[in-house]
Design a protein that fits this description.
By secondary structure, the chain is mainly alpha-helical. It has a single domain, classed as Non-ribosomal Peptide Synthetase Peptidyl Carrier Protein, Chain A. It is 57% helix and 0% strand. The chain is built from 4 helices and no strands. The two termini are 13 Å apart.
């Protein structure tokens, strides 16, 4: 799961925040802290679908599912099995 978290962190830092040197920790709040917004949330969801081959439902695009990298990695791992 750490490889999944690393890929997600790199994508968010590089493509969403445009800060390639930014380190995002696995438990760092993404949505609730305002680090990423609702527009960026769609980009992250599309990245997950394209990269990991898992489907993200529209109802999952919220703070309960997408607020940190641990939550996202758990969702991805549960869908891959």
């Amino acid at each position: 799961m750490s490889e999944t978290i690393a890929q997600l962190a790199k994508f968010i830092a590089d493509k969403i925040l445009k800060q390639p040197q930014r380190v995002i920790t696995s438990g760092e709040p993404l949505l609730s802290s305002g680090l990423i917004d609702s527009f960026s949330l769609m980009d992250v969801a599309l990245f997950i679908e394209d990269t990991f081959g898992v489907r993200i439902e529209d109802t999952e695009l919220n703070v309960n599912t997408f607020d940190n990298l641990d939550q996202l990695a758990s969702l991805i791992e549960s869908r891959k099995q």
